[in-house]
Every structure is written in structure tokens, then in C-alpha cells.
Amino acid sequence: MSTAQPVRPSGHRPREQRSRTASAALHTALVAASLVSVFPIAFIVFVSLRGRDGWQEPTRFVGFDVSNYTHILGETKFLTWFGNSVIVALGATVLGVLIAATAGYAVSRMRFPGHRPLMWTFLIVQMFPMAVLIVPLYNILGELELLDSYAGLIVTYCSISVPFCAWMLKGYFDTVPAEIDEAGRVDGLTPFGTFWRLIVPLARPGLAVTGFYSFITAWGEVAFASQFMSSEDHYTLAVGLQTFVGQQKAEWGLMTAAAVLITVPAAVVFFVAQRHLVAGLTAGGTKG
């Protein structure tokens, strides 16, 4: 008794039967793309190890030292700027994620007057160019006496990150079954208790994405920090780098070394959050 054999679509070839030429071409393309991505970072690290004037002859593979790093760490206010950036970035991350999470959850679960205009307002605010916001934000912070302060810069960065994060978390909370909220109410939890004890643990991937976005936004921002921070002791790292550029000469060796050191905390935050990033970015795309 003969059995029917499945008919493969014309031109279909199993993955294991891919030709060697196609595999070689695929791996070559991937290696080339990787080299293109890594080259700028590797070049900056290379130049930073060539001394103060090594950038003038970047193709010479001699004369490596760490003088740029020792000068930055020992003879500039880099560590002060680093501490300021950590305070501002962590403050903006914690406050921004808290505001975005509560706003996104409220719009996802509750129906109150103005809940739809609230989200559209977030979207419209996100459309404004950063340069347009500098003057009004400067005036507002001046009236509140928050210029040249950590609090003023943290609030400013939250105004950038919260609209995007609220939209993302709203989409993520839509994927969490509403039955969980009902179970919380049955157990006697308040709306905030339900959110904090039941929903937040389930929303870790979404919170990781928004936290990473908020941190990166605050860590590398230049325009607002350079306008709102007037004293050198309050400079963030991105603003402090500008002190290495003078009217007659730019200290490219010091700038490259500082750039390498600045990327380390961002890379650490990325590696800590990376296992949640894919799930957090894709969960808001579908509603289940």
C-alpha cells in the first residue's frame, strides 16, 4: 500500500541543502557588516591609545600608551562630570519610568475624562524639535529657580523620554490580561496595589526597554545640559567634553579617551537589560 508523499513547492530547498556558495556569500556579508559596525569604535579606541598627538598619524602602529586616560582621570574634572551624569541619568530614568508606567497603565486600564487626549498630547509633544524647546524650558526652569541644578535637568529629560515611554508601556500593558487586575481587586488590592504587586513584575521587559531609553537619553544629551548648566562643577560628561575644544586647537586625543570611558556605563546598562529588550520592544506590537 503506497503512502502519499508531501509535495514540496517548486524551487523549495531545505535549509540544510543550501549551497556552499550561498552560505559563503551570507557569512561574508555578515562579517562585512560586523566590521563596518565595529570599525568606528575600534578606531576611537586606537586613537585614544596613541598619546596627545597620536591622532595626527592614526595609521602608525607604534607609540601606544595610556597618557590620555591618566591625564583625563587625574588632571581634569572628568570624575566630577561622571558623577553628575550618573546622578542625572539615574534620576531621569527612575522618575521617567515611574511616570510613564503609571500613565501607560492608567490609559490602558482605566476610562477617565481626557484619557485619549492625554496620549495624543504625549504624541504631539514628541514631535517638537529639541531646539524649539530650549527657550521655553529655560524660561520655565528660571521661574522655578531650577537652572544649574540636577533637579531641573532631570525634569527636562523626563519631558523628552516620558511621551515615548508612556506610549510603549501602554501597548505593553494592553498585552497583559485584564483578568489579573480583576483577581487583584477580588483579593482586596487597591488599583495602585494591583499595579505595583501584580502588573509591574509582569512588565519587566517593557520597563527594561523604557529604562534603557531614558538612561541613554539622559546620558548622552548635550543641548539642554550645555544651556541649563552654567557652572563647571555641574557639567555632565557630554558638556565637559566641550572643554577640550578651544578656538585654536582641539584635544582629539583627550576627547577620544573620554569618549571611550563614557561608553562603558552605557554598555553595562545595555548588557544588563539586553535579555529583556527584544521581548519589551515586540510585546507592544500585538494585543493578546
From TrEMBL:
This is Carbohydrate ABC transporter permease. It is found in: Cell membrane. The keyword Methyltransferase does not apply. InterPro entries: BP-dep_ABC_trans_perm, MetI-like, MetI-like_sf. It comes from Streptomyces roseoverticillatus. Residues 82-273 form the ABC transmembrane type-1 domain. It is a multi-pass membrane protein. PANTHER family: MALTOSE TRANSPORT SYSTEM PERMEASE-RELATED, MALTOSE_MALTODEXTRIN TRANSPORT SYSTEM PERMEASE PROTEIN MALG. The keyword Cell membrane applies. Belongs to the binding-protein-dependent transport system permease family. MalFG subfamily. CDD domains: TM_PBP2. Keywords: Cell membrane, Membrane, Sugar transport, Transmembrane, Transmembrane helix, Transport. Its main location: membrane. The chain crosses the membrane at residues 21-49, 86-106, 118-138, 150-169, 252-273. The lineage of its organism: Bacteria, Bacillati, Actinomycetota, Actinomycetes, Kitasatosporales.
